[in-house]
Amino acid sequence: MTLCNHWYGDLLNLYEYMGKDIFRQYGIPVPNGYVVSSVDEVRKLTNPVAVKSQILLGGRGKAGGIKFAKTDQELKDAVKALLGAKVRNLTVTKVLIEDMLNIKHEYYVSITLNRSARAPTVIASAMGGVEIETVPDEKIFKRIIDPSLGYSDFIGREASTFMGLSPDLSKQFLDLLKKLYNVYKGEDAELVEINPLVETNDGKLIAADAKVVIDSDAMFRHREFNIQDPEKTPLELKAEGKGYAFVELDGDIGVIANGAGLTMATLDALLLHKGKPRNFLDLGGTDNVDIVVNAFDLVLEAKPKAILVNIFGGVTKCDTVAQGIVDAKKKFDIKIPIVVRLSGIHEEEGRQILKENGIEAFSEMMPAIERVTKVF
Predict the structure, then answer these.
(1) Contact status, residue 376 vs residue 346, Cβ threshold 8 Å
(2) Rounded Cα–Cα distance for residues 275 and 365 (Å)
(3) Residues with active-site annotation
(4) CA angle 25, 107, 89 (to 5 degrees)
(5) For the chain, first and last CA: distance in Å?
(6) DSSP-assigned beta bridge partners for residue 247
(7) Rounded CA separation 208/29 (Å)
(8) Which pLDDT score is estimated for 8?
(9) Which of 209, 229, 249 is the last residue of a domain?
(10) What are 156-213's pLDDT values in tens digits?
(11) Are residues 355 and 295 in the same domain?
(12) SS3 assignment, position 88
C-alpha cells in the first residue's frame, strides 16, 4: 500500500518544464526546449536533444526516463518510448525536448527554507549531478540568509570561492544566484534547486534541471499552476477539488479519520487485524457537519463494505461529527455497517447521538478496529 502524491504536506512540487519556464522569466539561463504530450507535436530536429520524462520524482536518468536523440527518427522513437511509460512507478504524460548540452562540469545550487532557523538557506557544491545527500558535508557550502536583510552578493562570493569558480564563472554565478533568490521570494517557494548547474565547454553556466517547490498556502497567488497528477483516480481528483486528502486503496473498509497521522495509524491498525482499507480520507480539523456529510459521499462512491470513522476530538468536536454521520446515513440511505470511535471534546454527547440512531460507537480505537473487521 503506497500513498504517493505531488503534494508534500503543505507544499506543491512543480514539473521541471514549469520550473524552467519560471527561470526564463527571471533571466536564469536554461536550454532551449519545448514540451509535448503526443508524438504529433514533435518538431523537426535542428540540434541533438535530450528527451526528458516529466514526473514529480527525481532519479529519472537511472530509471530510464531520459533519452537522447541525434536524428528525427531517434527523437520520435524516444518520445514514443517515454509517453505512457512508467518511470519510478509514475506514468509519463509529458516529455520535455531540449537542446543537448556540451558539459564540462556539473555544480549544485539551491535556496531552501531552513525550518529550524526560520530563514532561507543557500546550499551550493562543486559536486553536482548527484543527490546532494550523497555529497560529503565538507564539500557543501551552506549559508543562512537573514530575512530582515535579504540576499547580498557577499554570500554569492563566499559560495563561488568555496566552489573554486574561475573569475568569469564566479561573475555568472553571482548573477544567477541573485536571480534564484528572486525566484524563491517572488514565487512563494520553499525550495528552488538547480541540479545540475552545468558549465558548458564554451564557459557558460546553464540550469540543466529545475526543481521548484511552492508553499501551497500561497496558491491563490499562483492560479497559473494547474497540476493534475496522472496517478490519481477520478474519485481522488474529485476529492481534491472538494478539499479532502483522499486516496483510493484496494480493500473493502472505508476509512474516515481526522489528521494524517491518525488516519495512517488507523490504516496500520486495520492491516494488523487483517482488515483491508478501501480508502484514506483525512477529515482534517473541522467543526462543520456538512464537511462530514460530504466525506461520506466520497467514501460511499468507493463502494466499501463497511465504514470506520476514527475521531480524536480537539478542533473537531465529537458531537459535530456524530451529527454529520447521522445526517449522512439518512441522506444517502446507508445500509452498510458504520463503526465509530469518538474520543475527545463532547465525546459522550457524540456517542449518545449515535446510539440513539442505531450506530455503534467506541471510546477507544482498537475495539472499533476489531469490530469493523467482523461486521461483514
Answers:
(1) no
(2) 14
(3) 108, 193
(4) 80
(5) 22
(6) 280
(7) 9
(8) 40
(9) 229
(10) 999 999 999 999 999 999 999 999 999 999 999 999 999 999 999 999 999 999 999 9
(11) yes
(12) coil
Determine how many CB atoms are found less than 10 A away from the CB of residue 60.
20
- Mean pLDDT across the chain: 92
Strand 360-362 with 245-248, pairing: unpaired
CATH number for position 208: 3.30.470.20
CA distance 195 to 170: 17
What is the per-residue DSSP string for 140-151? EEEEEPPTTT--
**The three three-digit cell numbers of residue 298, written as one number:** 466520497
CATH of the domain at 83: 3.30.1490.20
Q: What is the pLDDT of residue 31?
A: 97
202 CB-side CA count, 13 A: 3
If you ran DSSP here, which 8-state letter would residue 14 be given?
P
Q: CA 317 to CA 346: how far, in whole Å? A: 6
pTM: 0.68
Q: What is the pLDDT of residue 228?
A: 59
Alpha-carbon distances of 97 from 34, 135, 273, 360, rounded to whole Å = 5, 29, 49, 57
CATH number at residue 281: 3.40.50.261
Which residue, 100, 129, 154, sits at the end of a domain?
100
Q: d(Cα 77, Cα 46) in Å, to the nearest integer?
A: 16
Residues 18, 141 within the same domain? yes
Q: Are residues 106 and 223 in the same domain?
A: yes
Q: What is the three-class DSSP state of 306?
A: strand
pLDDT at 314: 83
Distance (Å, rounded) from C-alpha 62 to C-alpha 144?
32
Same domain, 255 and 316: yes
Q: Are 140 and 124 contacting, i.e. CB atoms less than 8 angstroms apart? A: yes
Regions of the chain where pLDDT drops below 50: 1-9
Query: Using H for helix, E for strand and C for coil, what is the string for 113-144?
Result: EECCCCEEEEEEECCCCCCHHHCCHHHEEEEE
Grid coordinates of 301? 462512491
- Angle, vertex CA 138, rays to CA 135 and CA 142, nearest 5: 85
Residue carrying the nine cell digits 460507537: 361
Cis bond leading into 196, ω under 30°? yes
Give the separation between CA 182 and CA 275, rounded to whole angstroms.
50
CA distance 6 to 91: 13
Question: Looking at the structure, do residues 202 and 56 belong to the same domain, yes or no?
Answer: no
For residue 328, what is its C-alpha cell? 449522512
Q: Measuring CA to CA, which residue among 49, 135, 37, 159 is closest to residue 97?
A: 49
